[in-house]
Amino acid sequence: MSERMTKKKKPLEMTPVATTPVPSDSIDTQADAKPAGGEVEETPFEAVASICSVLVVGLFILTFLAQNFVIPSGSMENTLLVGDHLVVDRVTLAPPAKWMPFVRYREPKHGDILVFIKPVPDPDAEGKPQYLFLVKRLIGVPGDHIHLHDGIVYINGVAQPQPKDGEDLPANPGESVFLDEFPSVPPALDPSATEEWAVDAPNHIENGDLVVPQGKYFMMGDNRHNSLDSRYWGFVPRENIVGRPLFNYWSFKSTDEDYEQTGLGANVAWMAHVVLRFIPDTRWTRTLRVVR
Fold it and tell me: What pLDDT does residue 43 have?
């Protein structure tokens, strides 16, 4: 149910460096003259320098400007599907930097789809805590009063429209009341809610509304009956927000289970499946689709 995002790196390609012919009126000896239109051979040092420069630029882009992620679960269906590969803008929502004065920065706003680090850890295969990348839609900003009634989100007393492409699947048995009547049905009554949030949530409730504190944000998945989101684990701190998806550069038909497999054998089997099924299982209509 959680929308964990897996970071993937894309191989970089090196562009050949153009060379300049030796001028005909050069004073070099005849042995050193090059025929018109000939190319100067690249030395091993120059080749290594070219590769290193490309790697440095690529590493800079992947570290500071953009990253690639894959959607491994269905909490944002049908806005985002399992197997969507996204390019995420890490600059626009980052704190302003003096070394990038021409970039337009802004704060997160209602309706943004955001990539962020989950504020509570999940255990990995060995039981160690790990903080996952998630993707959700921003519902509440600092100061907002939020509640759900009959599955409809109310922000500051105003009913909000359902997400345009959001999936409207029935809730799991026993969870429909909690998901559709939040926070009048408190997290403490749902076993999937974290203990810390169950204790902290009542401190932020006023007149039946959940009030978003300063520096925090409230997130929900578009597939609202199949999304582990802020209703279960609370607010997202501003510093946890990584960026916002720009577009879907590749989408491959997958299931949640495909991304839950671990181990070398499972990875090799999945790579072989992708190679064999690349053309028929690629969702070509979603290629370069802008994320909204």
Answer: 78
Domain ranges of the chain: 4-8+63-290, 30-62
Q: Is the dihedral of CA 146, 111, 219, 241 positive or negative?
A: negative
Distance CA 240, CA 108 (A): 12
The answer to whether residue 42 scores a pLDDT higher than 60 is yes
Query: What count of residues does the chain have?
Result: 292
Give CA–CA dist 5/117, Å, rounded.
Answer: 10
pLDDT digit string, tens, across residues 102-145: 667 899 999 999 999 999 998 876 778 888 999 999 999 999 99
Residue 4 is predicted with a pLDDT of 58
**Residue 84: which H helix or E strand, with range?**
strand 84-89
Superfamily of domain covering 4-8+63-290? Umud Fragment, subunit A (2.10.109.10)
pLDDT band at 260 (very low <50, low <70, confident <90, very high): confident
Is-cis flag, bond preceding 78, omega within 30? Answer: yes
Does a cis peptide bond (omega within 30 degrees of 0) precede residue 183?
yes
Q: CA–CA separation, 144 vs 154, rounded Å?
A: 10
